[in-house]
């Protein structure tokens, strides 16, 4: 029995097998316990002999199990350590880092450019009142030009702003006609436009406003020309087309020539060769008056540009929807290293 038990201990290759051996030989139902239990039935002479023998066997088996257990544990630890070895010489895995969205970068670039021309940067709410979005801009309730900007209404009086122009009215109202103002305002705007390659129902605008004594149309042209040259390079052309906005008189729209040049020459990237990027004009006297300025004393210009279209032109992006569908492979191309 002893030999058999010791052999089993020897053969055990895992802690589980070893435990099975312990239960089988030393457990309550094991043969050694049986022998010890049966001592009562033995004669007086036999008892000490058998007892000593059984205890000796039990001791030896237990000892063998303990030492085997220590051996298995050491081997397992060894194995685990070998498996978990860290090779400190391997190059690290780079942690992916974020970066500004292309539109954010463009807006910041435009901000810098206008700050350089003395404009300050302001903000206004995206959820706007009908008054500031339309009425204060010379667009009363049933004015047909409201159709130019199909609107997401929240209630009769509250809406998602359709342009950044309400910030003009807000800013002038705050100043109450007491001094000049020269500001730009970037922000998101919303329209019930059908999404296509150049239209999105949510897009970005940057408003510009300069009100002072003796501001003229030529000042507007000069500022826009400077902006276009700095943004796109000296070789790009701009054109101003007469247009209509109820809050400016006269009104213009500015297009930029739309060319893609590569090693084989240049081709126009839109059928007409021009892309419209902003609307502008001289602030309507009625708008100045509503905001508390005396139009006899003050005049001003305003413009509203679309940075989405500007980014498309500058980086040759063929579809405005790329900016909003957030495919990380698209966005990553524009992250600065
Ligand atoms: C306006 O929103 C006027 N508030 C601009 C303005 C301000 C005129 C101050 C005069 C004085 P318009 O609807 O044309 O105008 O939009 C201005 C620019 O926003 C456009 O030139 C275009 O670049 C961009 N834009 C307009 N609709 C969309 C659209 N659905 N998706 C992307 N860009 C658009």
What does this structure look like?
- Belongs to the class-II aminoacyl-tRNA synthetase family. Phe-tRNA synthetase alpha subunit type 1 subfamily.
- Its main location: cytoplasm.
- This is Phenylalanine--tRNA ligase alpha subunit.
- The protein is of the alpha+beta class and about 325 residues long.
- The protein is about 40% helix and about 20% strand.
- A hairpin with a 2-residue loop joins strand 6 and strand 7.
- The radius of gyration is 42 Å and the shape is rod-shaped.
- The two termini are about 75 Å apart.
- The mean pLDDT is about 90.
- The structure holds adenosine-5'-[phenylalaninyl-phosphate].
- Adenosine-5'-[phenylalaninyl-phosphate] binds near residues 199, 276 and 320.
- Adenosine-5'-[phenylalaninyl-phosphate] binds next to strand 5, strand 10, strand 11 and helix 10.
Q: Termini separation (Å)?
A: 76 Å
Q: Per DSSP, what share of the residues sits in E-state strands of 2 or more residues? A: 15-25%
Mean pLDDT: 89
What value does the Rg take, in angstroms? 42 Å
Based on Cα principal axes, name the global outline: rod-shaped
| Fraction of residues in H or I helices | 40-55%
Bound molecules: adenosine-5'-[phenylalaninyl-phosphate]
The major pleated sheet works out as:
7 strands, mixed
Low-confidence stretches: none
Order of helices and strands: HHHHHEEHEHEEHEEEEEHEHHH
H/I helix tally: 12
* DSSP, total strands: 11
Strand order of the largest sheet: 1-4-5-11-10-7-6
Structural class by helix and strand composition: alpha+beta
